[in-house]
Design a protein that fits this description.
By secondary structure, the chain is mainly beta. The protein contains six helices and 30 strands.
Length: 492
């Protein structure tokens, strides 16, 4: 008989600017028996998961820092309600109508409407997922912009062809497995894909979400070695308000905002009503910030070095280049280089998208509703359609500033990332002339950006060009809002 593990679990929750630490017991709900853990039974007592989010915003976004989880292991993130007969039935209904229903098995909407007053039907929404590294750690973003049915370990969402044996992971040596090593299998992070449950879902409906159970759920990929066990939970409250502007992490100057750093706290450089606090020592001025990128304007591939000073201390930044399609820039655009970046990285759809376009974010990643491969095929099939417009971009590297706010980083393009914690695959730009924007951005919601600055380079035969300068745009950073700049230089 399998041993049922009774555990205590810890999760640190940072709500806006107020930190809260709670101790959890095993959660209640579907698939929570600890004897059903995937591959081997694990005591989550030593795990730590930090979730930082804004309690009132236009959608749920959070920064997750996790340690002590199962190594190289995929977890679902989901919201779970207390049921249709509970005191929080309104919240439960919002989750189920945008996700799935559970009542002694998965049910559909028709079952819910017919039985909601006599049976306590649970509404839940699987909205994101992540895979830990070989030490059981993860840091990155989650966002409620997709409704998933289940996860698969390949990009065609029909099977698990990319699963690999656990014997390839030294972290599992000596573990008492619940199945044979040839059966126990894991999935590389780049091969995890979510099957969409509700194609029209892109953000939570407006409303107050009370006592929502935020669930960290094990993913078992239909392998007969455990079943989708709930690992850690925490009840949280938050509000979705489409009219909420200040504090949503998006600079909206047309509404009078001077800055938006993703919270409504004073004393951090951006006030509770989104005005720049110019008398605060934390503000970075042009004199305090400086930097440049020394790069080759031609060669077999893009290369250079980033030197930046006066950044936020111990911050992780994304390094990416973005295309300039003619559908946005007219004669100033370059559809060829825009296309190459998207085919290597991702396409951000601006018009006539295959998914619901958020009015706040002004677009969506095509691969948020289909696999990377299908998203690229979709772009190629529709790029010439009247009204269709997509921006190609390539997040090719990341770097973390030191304790004094300095960042020095050698640049090369050999990989494509979704975030700094999630690799899409390898990348290699084909020969040609590129007209792009170079961007330095934060690697967590609300994805603040320093830049862009237009620059051009050639893969292959050398060409000449002017020295570009890095200027700021309206972004979710106090740094950008007060006029931070970087100068980019070309190698002589």
């Amino acid at each position: 008989m399998k041993k049922i593990i009774s555990v205590l679990m810890f999760i640190i929750l940072t709500i806006a600017v107020n930190a809260e630490t709670v101790t959890l017991d095993a959660a209640s709900g579907p698939g929570t028996g600890f004897d059903d853990q995937f591959i081997y039974e694990y005591d989550y007592n030593g795990a730590s998961v930090t979730v930082e989010f804004v309690a009132s915003s236009d959608n749920f976004r959070a920064h997750v820092t996790a340690s002590g989880l199962k190594p190289s292991f995929t977890y679902q993130m989901k919201f779970e309600g207390h049921g249709s007969l509970s005191a929080y039935s309104d919240t439960n209904e919002l989750l189920g109508l945008n996700g799935r229903w559970w009542d002694s098995g998965n049910q559909n909407d028709a079952y819910y409407w017919a039985n909601k007053d006599t049976s306590n039907i649970i509404g839940y929404l699987v909205f994101d997922y992540f895979t830990t590294d070989s030490d059981g750690n993860f840091e990155g973003e989650i966002k409620a912009d997709a409704s998933y049915h289940v996860l698969y370990c390949d990009d065609d969402l029909s099977g698990n062809g990319d699963l690999y044996q656990i014997s390839d992971e030294t972290a599992y040596d000596g573990k008492t497995l619940k199945c044979d090593e040839t059966t126990a299998a894991l999935c590389p992070s780049a091969s995890v894909f979510g099957q969409i449950e509700r194609p029209s879902f892109s953000e939570l409906p407006e409303g107050t979400y009370e006592n929502v159970i935020l669930v960290l759920n094990e993913e078992s990929f239909h392998v007969s070695c455990g079943t989708w066990t709930t690992a850690m939970t925490k009840e949280i409250d938050f509000e979705i308000d489409y009219t909420q502007t200040c504090g949503n992490g998006i600079l909206e100057t047309e509404l009078g905002e001077e800055c938006d750093d993703g919270n409504n706290a004073n004393g951090d450089g951006c006030s509770e009503d989104c005005n720049v606090e110019t008398n605060k020592d934390s503000i970075k001025t042009d004199e305090q910030f400086n930097g440049y990128v020394d790069y080759q304007d031609c060669g077999e591939d893009f290369s250079g070095t980033l030197y930046a000073h006066g950044l936020e201390t111990s911050h992780r930044y994304q390094l990416k280049i973005e295309g300039k399609p003619t559908c946005l820039h007219g004669s100033d655009g370059n559809d060829w280089s825009n296309e190459q970046l998207g085919l290597q990285g991702r396409f951000w759809c601006k018009q006539d998208c295959p998914c619901t376009v958020s009015s706040t974010w002004g677009g969506c990643n095509i691969d948020s509703v289909m696999s990377y491969e299908d998203a690229r095929e979709y772009y190629l099939d529709h790029k010439d359609d009247p009204g269709f417009c997509a921006v190609g971009y390539l997040l090719f590297d990341c770097g973390t500033s030191d304790s004094e706010g300095n960042l020095e980083k050698s640049l090369s393009i050999d990989a494509a990332y979704e975030t700094c914690s999630s690799v899409i695959g390898s990348a290699e730009l084909p020969e040609g002339d590129y007209e792009v924007s170079f961007l330095l951005g934060e690697d967590f919601s609300p994805w603040g950006t320093l830049g862009p600055q237009y620059l051009d380079f050639t893969i292959g035969t050398c060409g000449a060009g002017d020295i570009p300068e890095f200027s700021t745009i309206g972004a979710a950073l106090v740094l950008a809002a007060v006029g931070v700049f970087v100068v980019l230089k070309r190698k002589k």
